[in-house]
# Entry
Amino acid sequence: MIFKIFRNIISMINAQGGNIYVGIIENDDVIKGEYKGHTIKYGDITFLDVDYSMKKFGLDLDSVVRSMQINVENYTNYSIQDLDSYFSFKKYCLMNKEGKTVSLVRINVTPKKNKVSILCDSQKLEVKRVKTMTVSKRIN
# Structure
């Protein structure tokens, strides 16, 4: 999951930027078992508690952010100092009318200004600096 988000961040840096929201469920039929108790619904949008999901795997937001930073260094040949300014994480807490809360994470991605794009090949886990690239599925 972290690698998929990382790949989208790199694609969005190379393109127009945007936001990635972690915790929004497009199809709430996929939510099973105990996770159903950790969601809230606003209209037709379902939100899954990101904090609960991370705790299930022994993670917290700081460790996930650090993992993203390590991926930047390992898979792009750029240092985190070079690319860290292109993405930021912010956690939000949502509350429904009954007082139930869930957390949501927004990753804001700013597009890269120079002409050299960053390409991450998820099959070989290789990264090449190229003039053009294929954009992976964007979440906006």
The CA atoms of residues 55 and 61 lie 10 Å apart.
